[in-house]
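The following block was generated as part of the benchmark described in Methods. Ligand: magnesium ion.
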Amino acid sequence: MTANKKTKTALDVQETLKNIEEQFKMFQILNENGEVVNDAAMPDLSDEEFQELMRRMVYTRVLDQRSISLNRQGRLGFYAPTAGQEASQLASHFALEKEDFILPGYRDVPQIIWHGLPLYQAFLFSRGHYVGNQAPEGVHVLSPQIIIGAQIIQATGIALGMKKRGKKAVAVTYTGDGGSSQGDFYEGINFAGAFKAPAIFIVQNNQFAISTPRELQTAASTIAQKAVAAGIPGVLVDGMDPLAVYTAVRDARQRAVNGEGPTLIETMCYRYGPHTMAGDDPTRYRTADTDSEWEKKDPLVRFRRFLESKNLWSKEKEEEVIEQAKEEIKQAIKKADETPQQKVTDLISNMFEELPFNLKEQYEIYKEKESK
Ligand SMILES: Cc1ncc(C[n+]2csc(CCOP(=O)(O)OP(=O)(O)O)c2C)c(N)n1
Ligand SMILES: [Mg+2]
């Protein structure tokens, strides 16, 4: 028998796999030129809602640029750039309600800001300050998760809790293409499927996990198809198309609150910047050609064209949003600067509801030191 001879087997397993994979076609409503290519799926949003979604995306692009500069000036700490992912992030969030719970990854700060986390607290999170992790009462968000995939199991738990309490709300969690390889990911989606937990798992496939390309992440041709093994719906969506992302999440939310269980959504997107500001150099693992190919798909350009064709957007409007963003960022960073520096006693007293004896001891020691 020659090594490369095709093995003849009783079942055509390759054909079965191919048939399944072919089902996962990319859902799109707006093409790269901002033209509607799927009118039947067009969401029923008002003119004001279209404009608000654009406003949030433009604002977030400014926030990204300013955060990068502030980081370079040493005025921010940890920061994971978001440019290129605005449709995946803001349009998915746009389909949610205030009572929904968001469990973000480290790159998903924009969604929790739009869910109600004050901007200065997002800056404090970046600086590792505990106040950045204390969402105001009624703002249903957790702190951005640094441990890849950990938020997925937590989202399933929160979703199940909401279901048991009879809440008509969902838990939404975000991870990346890399996150979809974690054990936590499979455990989370499987458990949510088995218990019909009202969860939405969004995988922002930005093509890289730091420098590891998507092709090395999994043999599966889509991440969306991983839903099949969990027995839940999986959707592959153009993550640079705000209307497609919005619609996929809106439908998933509807199914979840109707008791139909969770959905896995893969948003196909790209991050323009480096992985984080901690020093990686994307030119070592991506080509300028790939970058420019994705820049042509830009969610802001696409949505701007769409809105302009409906006379809903203008250069002046955009300038206004940019100026407002800059001003609010300035105020927020000032407020972050004015927040008292954290002390060791703050760290200890925020860790547990009731301190164990050893921490009580340490608390007293540090309290004494800090009083001097
Ligand atoms: C459990 C765990 N393993 C490894 C890391 C180190 N790490 C940080 S980000 C990252 C890549 C994640 O890529 P992806 O899930 O695609 O998200 P993206 O950064 O592209 O948004 C890795 C491996 C980590 N934070 N946690
Ligand atoms: Mg990634």
